[in-house]
Specification:
The structure holds 2 protein chains of 2 kinds. By secondary structure, chain A is of the alpha+beta class. Chain A has one domain: Peroxisomal Thiolase, Chain A, domain 1 (3-Layer(aba) Sandwich), CATH 3.40.47. Chain A contains 9 helices and 9 strands. Chain A is globular and about 55 Å long. The two termini of chain A are 18 Å apart. The model of chain B has no long low-confidence stretch (mean pLDDT 97). By secondary structure, chain B is an alpha/beta fold. In chain B, strands 1, 2, 5, 6, 7, 9, 10, 11, 12, 14, 16 and 17 form a 12-stranded mixed β-sheet that branches. Chain B has a 3-stranded mixed β-sheet with strand order 3-4-8, with no helix packed on it. The radius of gyration of chain B is 20 Å and the shape is globular. Chain B starts with 7 loop residues before the first strand and ends with a strand. Chain B is built from 12 helices and 17 strands. The chains are: A alpha+beta, B alpha/beta. At the A-B interface, helix 4, helix 5, helix 6, strand 4 and helix 7 of A face helix 4, helix 6, strand 6, helix 7 and helix 8 of B. Chain B: InterPro entries: Beta-ketoacyl_synthase, Ketoacyl_synth_AS, Ketoacyl_synth_C, Ketoacyl_synth_N, PKS_Beta-ketoAc_synthase_dom, Thiolase-like.
């Protein structure tokens, strides 16, 4: 499957946006891991903005940067969101509340607990009525989400905004599913033009290491995008293997 | 203009819900107008509600080698795999295409979260979850397609979809995209969602639960009854199936971009999804609309407005959630199978337990079963986050 990359978004420790993060990933500026600042999405009305959790802010920050970089109108983009944990902080808080005898939970938290909450807030923020799908995928969420996004571009001839994001869960669930730090990567994928991208399923592939960012890439499913982002930052052609948990792999090739 | 996606035959299908286990029981429940909702008898749930519970689910065993996947949701997936020869049909497809060419694309809203709810109640003095609790193979969304893929011996792509109550329907569209893009030749699609405390207490917090069996489209409807269901479908290219097999003819998706849990009052997003599905299916008559129809005041009113804008009083409409309850991430898949039954049997199932349909809708709400030729069914699913999905099911 072949398409193009027209815009990129990034947010992670010491990688505050693609504009700044690109120079770090290209090796022009040293990487200094710093806590991730998550601004409330400016495009949302104040009442909705207040309700957004760190995980929604994370996803929307990367998605908005990629859309802006593409030059395409954000409300004209279909979206694919992929996340292993979804909104773990909201789900954790509900699980805590359910242990009380009456099990009373907050109605706002309940509708924010759906896995497509980030997609819902994206639609409200951008005034978009375009189709959107939200995927899980555990450790494979970046690879399988990318495959699904590219398949939609190729099969339906539409531009797709793909956003992979994951934020740490809260205690005690975080002990069962450790996630290092918040991380999100977004790509605007287009049927033609942009940086050339090829994505294929394979029986197997050697996992491409993430260099200095290996710890981050192993600690957050969305950060498995780092080898691809590094190649894009260096504007160099690369062939990247992403092994899947139950066997098989996704092979990504990017043009210079 | 987007390229057309290929129609896909529903080559095999299996449903397990409160309506019954398998096609024959589901069909009989529809014709006999026998619903599956009953007062909730599960512990720790809100008082005074009705649910659509699958009997015997707790006793279903998973194969020994896959025991780490044990949870209510995967038990229901297992039950569906064993029903109506579904696993055997998939095995035949894997022989035909190769196991790497059969994808598993499944929707769920809460996967095995009931397992985590129990684990929270058994926390140690230090607050830690019990050692034996396996998050990855139960609660995690990907646990569902991973279990089904492993159980069926498949090695194609595994995709977990979670778009709230459109999850199951969305799997049909994603499979169409994957087959068109050349990623696979067949796909196991559908949805599995099971009763859990988070969902029931969540809908109670929103004050959306009915005090009895839900009555979608009724003038005096008072909310949702939650149900559980496993609905699985094997999709293959129409030309690969027996002639006349009921098919997915088109799918359409949209977003509301309006509010997280309240639908757009005029149903603009719903209209957009239905229009997209009808355009994708191409020319042909719609003889029945299987509504999302949850039974809440706002959702049903929105859908009535959307249907009036598209069809006026020209097409009979109803919701079958009075039989099954709202099975959330499985509902779109369960209702796609019900749509196939309606096409095969020439049946418009009237809303169950409804004496007077809401006159404000201005559409033809069926309240009794009607025998009529049903060439195509439009099946709607709408969800939190403003997610909308419509399927057109009929003969290719």
């Amino acid at each position: 499957m072949r398409c193009g990359i027209a815009g990129i978004g990034l947010i992670g420790p010491g990688l505050a946006g693609w504009a700044a993060g690109r120079t770090v990933l290209a090796g022009e500026v040293p990487w200094e891991p710093a806590p991730v600042a998550l601004p409330p999405p400016a495009a949302l009305p104040p009442t909705e903005r207040r309700r957004t959790s760190p995980s929604v802010r994370l996803a929307l920050a990367a998605a908005a940067e990629a859309a802006a970089g593409s030059g395409l109108a954000p409300d004209g983009l279909e979206t694919v969101f992929a996340s292993s944990n979804g909104d773990g902080a909201v789900v954790g808080s509900i699980l805590e509340a359910l242990t009380a005898p009456d099990g009373a939970i907050s109605p706002t938290q309940f509708h924010n607990s759906v896995h497509n909450a980030a997609a819902g807030y994206w639609g409200i923020a951008m005034g978009s009525t375009r189709a959107s799908v939200s995927l899980g995928g555990h450790d494979d969420s970046f690879a399988t989400g990318l495959v699904q996004a590219v398949a939609n571009v190729v099969a339906r001839g539409v531009p797709v905004l793909f956003c992979a994001y994951d934020a740490p869960l809260t205690a005690p669930l975080d002990a069962k599913r450790p996630t290092e730090a918040p991380f999100a990567a977004a790509l605007v994928l287009v049927p033609s033009g942009g940086v050339s991208l090829s994505v294929e399923m394979a029986v197997g592939a050697e996992e491409t290491p993430a260099g200095a960012w290996e710890g981050l890439a192993r600690g957050n499913p969305a950060a498995r995008s780092l080898p691809l982002l590094r190649a894009l930052a260096r504007r160099e052609a690369a062939r990247i293997g992403l092994g899947l948990a139950d066997g098989g792999a996704v092979v990504v090739e990017v043009g210079a | 203009m987007s390229p057309m996606l290929p129609p896909l035959a529903l080559a095999a299908r299996s449903t397990v819900s409160a309506m019954g286990t398998g096609a024959a029981a589901t069909r009989e429940a529809l014709h006999a107008r026998r619903g599956g909702l009953a007062p909730c008898d599960l512990p720790g749930m809100p008082e005074g509600i009705w649910v659509g519970r699958v009997p015997g689910l707790e006793a279903v065993a998973l194969p020994e080698a896959l025991s780490r996947y044990v949870c209510r949701n995967n038990r229901l997936a297992e039950m569906a795999l064993r029903t109506d020869g579904f696993a055997e049909a998939v095995a035949a497809a894997a022989d035909r295409y190769g196991p790497q060419r059969v994808a598993v694309v499944l929707g769920t809203s809460t996967s095995g979260i009931a397992e985590t709810e129990e684990a929270y109640a058994r926390r140690g003095a230090d607050g830690a979850l019990p050692a034996e609790f396996d998050f990855t193979h139960t609660h995690d969304l990907h646990a569902l397609p991973r279990y089904v893929r492993a159980r069926l011996g498949l090695s194609g792509p595994a995709v977990s979809i979670s778009t709230a109550c459109t999850s199951g329907a969305r799997s049909f569209l994603e499979a169409q995209v994957m087959i068109a893009a050349g990623l696979c030749d067949a796909a196991v699609v559908g949805g599995v969602d099971t009763l859990c405390r988070m969902t029931l207490h969540g809908f109670r917090a929103l004050e959306l639960l009915s005090k009895a069996a839900c009555r979608p489209c009724a003038a005096d409807r008072d909310g949702i009854s939650i149900g559980e269901a496993g609905a699985l479908v094997l999709l293959v290219r129409a030309e690969d199936a027996a002639p006349g097999t009921v098919a997915l003819l088109g799918a359409g998706a949209s977003a509301d971009g309006h509010h997280m849990s309240s639908p757009h009052p005029e149903g603009l997003g719903a209209v957009a999804a239905m229009r997209a599905a009808l355009a994708a299916a191409g020319e042909g008559p719609v003889d029945y609309v299987n509504m999302h129809g949850t039974g809440t005041r706002a959702n049903d009113a929105m859908e009535g407005n959307a249907l009036r804008a598209l069809f006026g009083e020209g097409v009979p409409c109803s919701s079958t959630k009075g039989w099954s309850g709202h099975t959330l991430g499985a509902s779109g898949a369960l209702e796609a199978v019900i749509a196939a039954i309606c096409v095969e049997d020439g049946l418009v199932p009237g809303c169950l337990g409804v004496e007077t349909p809401d006159p404000e809708f201005g559409v033809d709400v069926a309240v009794g079963n009607r025998a009529a030729p049903v060439r195509r069914v439009l099946s709607n699913s709408f969800g939190f986050g403003g997610s909308n999905l419509a399927l057109v099911i009929g003969r290719a």
